[in-house]
Amino acid sequence: MNGLGPVVWPPAPIETERLVLRESEARDRSALIELFASPEVGTYVGGPRPREELERTVLEVPGRRPGFFVIDLDGAAIGMVTLDRRDGERPGRIRPDAGEVELGYMFLPQAWGHGYAAEACTATLDWFAAVLPGEPVVLTTQTANDRSMRLAAQLGFTEVERFEEYGAEQWFGVRSSPAPTG
Ligand SMILES: CC(C)(COP(=O)(O)OP(=O)(O)OC[C@H]1O[C@@H](n2cnc3c(N)ncnc32)[C@H](O)[C@@H]1OP(=O)(O)O)[C@@H](O)C(=O)NCCC(=O)NCCS
After folding, report:
1. Which of 22, 42, 117, 154 makes a 20 to 30 Å CA pair with 31?
2. How far is CA 127 from CA 11, 13, 27, 115, 159, in A?
3. In the chain, what are the domain boundaries?
4. Is 160 helix (H, G, I), strand (E, B) or coil?
C-alpha cells in the first residue's frame, strides 16, 4: 500500500504521442529545481522558492514517490504531473471521509502553449482509471490561474465548489472515471 492505495509503483514508462511519463531520476534534478524556482511557474502556487535553498534541500533523486510522474520530451524533463491523496484537513471535499486523489501539474514556461500538459494529464488520468477504476480524481486551482482553469475544463473536471485558501479564491473540481465493469 502507498499514498495511492494498492497501486503498483512505478508503472512501466507511459508513452504518448510526443511525451514519456516516467518515474523521476537523478538527471531530472536541475529541471525540477528550475520549475520550483521559476517566478512564472510559482505565480499561482505559493510563489517561487529561493534557488539556493532548493540546491541545498532537493534530494539527489527528487520526487520519487507513488503518483509523481516526470514528463519527458525528447529525453529531458519539461514538467511534472502528480496524483496524491488529499489532506482531509483542507477545505473542499466530495465525500465525507476525504482522502480523495488529487491531480497536480507544473510545467516549465518554455513548454507552455503546446498542449503538453493536456497530453500528459490525460495519459495520467487514463493510467489511474485503469489501475483504480471508478475512483474519482479531484483538482484545486486558483480561479485567477487562467491556463490551469482552461486545462481543468479541457480534462473534463467540473466545479464542485469554490473557497478561499492561501489568500486567494480556489476552484475545486472533480472528474469521475467510468465505473468498473465485469
Ligand atoms: C497550468 C499549466 C500546466 C498549463 O499549461 P498549458 O501549456 O497552457 O496547457 P496545455 O497543455 O493545455 O496547452 C494549452 C495551450 O497549448 C496550445 N496548443 C498548441 N498545440 C497544441 C496541441 N497540439 N494540443 C493542444 N493544445 C495545443 C493551446 O492552443 C493552448 O494555448 P493557449 O492557452 O495559448 O491558447 C502551466 O501554465 C503551468 O505549469 N503553470 C504553472 C504551475 C501551475 O500553476 N499549476 C497549476 C497548479 S493547480
Report:
1. 154
2. 9, 11, 24, 18, 23
3. 14-132
4. strand
Matching CATH number, 14-132, of 3.40.630.30, 1.10.10.60, 3.10.310.30, 2.170.270.10:
3.40.630.30
CA dist 40 and 107 (Å) reads 10
82 bridge partner residues: 68, 104
Name the burial class of residue 149, with classes exposed (0-12), middle (13-18) and buried (19+) by CB atoms within 10 angstroms of its CB. Answer: middle
Q: Answer whether 147 contacts ligand 1 (Cβ < 6 A).
A: yes
Nearest-atom number in ligand 1 for the CA of 117 is 11
Dihedral, CA of residue 36, residue 128, residue 95 and residue 65, to nearest 10: -40
Element (H, E) at 146: helix 146-154
How far is the C-alpha of 17 from the C-alpha of 101, rounded, in Å?
26
Facing residues of 179 across strands? Answer: none
Atom of ligand 1 nearest to the CA of 40: 41
Determine the Cα–Cα distance for residues 83 and 182; give it in Å rounded to an integer.
Answer: 26
Q: What is the pTM of this model?
A: 0.96
